[in-house]
Amino acid sequence: MTNQNSKSKIPNKLLPWLDVVAITAWGILMLKYWLTGKLNLLIHPNYFGLTIVGSIGLIIIGFFKAQELWQRRRRDLPPSAQHNTLFPPGWGSTLLLTTAILGFMITPQVFASDKALQRDVTDLLGTARIKPQAFRATVRPEERSLVDWVRTVNVYPEPDAYTGQKVKVQGFVMYPPDIGKEYFFLARFVLTCCAADAYPIGLPVKLQDNQERFSADNWLEVEGQMVTENLAGKRQLTIAATSLKKIPQPKNPYSY
């Protein structure tokens, strides 16, 4: 009986330390994402400060909790009484620690065309989630980003109004199944809060006869002028490409 009781006490003494490790691991993980430049793949830059402060706070909590447990151990004091929960003791901390370990092992990946293709072509051209108030009418057409163009079209959707305007935009290549072979979509993902609510926007690009077709997910800088084309049974603003230049994926591939 004595041996069984002593064995049962060991896990009970380790459970509070499991909490400490889980809390500290999450604090270190968020700081790691920030220091390695991966945090922008997960959340909007507006929330970087809050995330960093929260991460430091978790590490401080873990430190003081470890200090308290060490002092209890030296004084041979029993751990604090456990609260009754629906799950076995230590289950929540184990889950948190496991996900943190996976976070250290797995690098966050940028969303690509496979996720964007889950949307219809018309959803890429205009969405209610694009904020009209961010539309900047004073920007010259050739200085507008891809997101600026989509916002502009959402404010005034008549494609003929932009015919002949110069355009120079960057994004990744995707090939929706319901457009012709002489077209592809240039797209980007927009983050409003975090990666969970990221959504794609884009514009169709019309290729000339002698222009190279790039593979899906290649990043391009496209120059040309705006024309009106019939795509998916609808008149759509389209980039008639005069120049296609392959570029590396930007350090921050998302728009805001």
Can you describe what's shown?
The protein contains six helices and five strands, in the order H-H-H-H-H-H-E-E-E-E-E. With 256 residues, it is of the alpha+beta class. It has a five-stranded mixed β-barrel with strand order 1-2-3-5-4. Helix 1 (2-35) packs antiparallel against helix 2 (48-75) and helix 1 (2-35) runs parallel beside helix 3 (91-105). The longest helix is centred in the N-terminal third of the chain and has 34 residues, at 2-35. It starts with a helix and ends in a 10-residue tail after the last strand.
Distinctive features:
256 residues; five-stranded mixed beta barrel; alpha+beta; 5 strands; disordered N terminus; elongated
Brief characterization of the structure:
The chain has 256 residues and is of the alpha+beta class. Helices cover 38% and strands 20% of the residues.
N-to-C order of helices and strands: HHHHHHEEEEE
Level of helix content? 25-40%
Classify the oligomer.
single chain
What general outline do the C-alpha atoms trace?
Answer: elongated
**What is the straight-line distance between the termini?**
63 Å
- List how many beta strands DSSP finds: 5
User: Spans of 5+ residues with little confidence (pLDDT < 50)?
Assistant: 1-10
* Spatial strand sequence of the major β-sheet: 1-2-3-5-4
**What's the Cα radius of gyration?**
26 Å
